[in-house]
Amino acid sequence: MNFSELIQAVRRSPASLQVPAEWAQGRASFGGLVAALVYEAMRAQVPEGRPVRSLAITFVGPVEPDVPVAFEAEVLRDGKAVSQVLGRAVQNGQVATLVQGSFGASRVSSVQVDAEPAPAMAPLDACQELPYLKGVTPEFVRYLAMRWGLGGLPFSGNHSREMGGWVRLRDEPRAPVDEAHLLALVDAWPPAVLSHLSKPAPGSSLTWTIEFVQPVADLSTEDWCLYRAVIEHATDGYGHIASGLWTADGRLLAISRQTVTVFA
């Protein structure tokens, strides 16, 4: 099942869905997909006209592939303009992923501040693509194309603070991109600290906060997006990484921050 098919599946039956093993990331399911599936359950509980503004995601434990998962959502409060929603992925009776989301309607405001310019990036055709290699790259890479333009590949011994390049979904029918797609595109990239290592070691996201620029820019699943992550600090097996996602012509799509763990 491709990304769109899984999104449609959770919309039809959020109470029980199995993430296929082809979406695995080690022993867990790809976190960007899991977050997108929880988000879909949350979005279904929110009135029209209140797009998601931010999500705070905690990966409590791995979501096992090919094992039923329930995607649950609870509205904590519906205010005049903002809905606060709590979402969960529950597997084997245990919470595996917890998401707190804020959904808010637009309002008239005198404050208007443009985003800073997108970072400079090598042209798409000049960037090295990470191929899907069975048994080498995570299984989910078959569904996401990434081309490196900043920093090094994981386990390359590159000590740059930055990692980034171009990203889009693979094997997707042409369709408008929404927030669920953006979750997958941002989380597709490995923790930037992994490029500092010279040999493979486990690493994963512990917590993740992402904010969406609304309305989402008009782009399709066939379009490439620009991604950049910056390591702000790393020690004692934890890294703190800030990142952003932009359209190819430089419009800001999302602002992200992750605390990651690295076991080396």
UniProtKB/TrEMBL annotation:
Assigned GO CC terms: cytosol
Protein name: Thioesterase family protein
Signal peptide annotation: none
Database matches in Pfam families: 4HBT_3 (PF13622), 4HBT_3C (PF20789)
Entry keywords, A to Z: Hydrolase
GO molecular function annotation: fatty acyl-CoA hydrolase activity
All copies of domain Acyl-CoA thioesterase-like C-terminal, residue ranges: 125-262
Membrane-spanning ranges: none
